[in-house]
Amino acid sequence: xxxxxxxxxxxxxxxxxxxxxxxxxxxxxxxxxxxxxxxxxxxxxxxxxxxxxxxxxxxxxxxxxxxxxxxxxxxxxxxxxxxxxxxxxxxxxxxxxxxxxxxxxxxxxxxxxxxxxxxxxxxxxxxxxxxxxxxxxxxxxxxxxxxxxxxxxxxxxxxxxxxxxxx
Length: 167
What we know:
It is a single chain. By secondary structure, the chain is α/β, with parallel strands linked by helices. It has one domain (7-155): YqgF/RNase H-like domain (Nucleotidyltransferase, domain 5), CATH 3.30.420. Helix content is 41%, strand content 21%. It is built from four helices and six strands, in the order βββαβαβααβ. It has helices at residues 43-54, 74-92, 107-117, 122-148; strands at 7-12, 16-22, 29-36, 59-64, 98-103, 154-155. α3 (107-117) packs across α4. The protein is globular. Its main location: cytoplasm. This is Putative pre-16S rRNA nuclease. Keywords: Cytoplasm, Hydrolase, Nuclease, Ribosome biogenesis.
């Protein structure tokens, strides 16, 4: 964990990617944006890399959805692949950022419930539910950082820099 740098929380879905960020002290998670998921062209990843660089983000937490029993699902594999791709894109830009996976069971369900309780109509949920879930992921990570006195979740391995020298 890098002190005094903002953190990013990401909720990866098949259609959308919710993004939240924190203040440099890691006290409060706030919604930023919902991106259209783009696994073919990776425009969502490019937007994230640019935001991370421009805002000097120190740690990125990607929500890792698991079943209620803690098993891996298709969504788990999608989130892991997204986190690895993000780490690779950051490494290719020579940006050193800690990308971590954090258990996020039920954050989307909780986000829908919170929006309903706040009086937001069901049709409007789709526009912001991913951001609300990303806020929940990031806020959980920030609380864990305080308890652990260090980073939460598990690190995504940074890709090794490939040598361009011929042997």
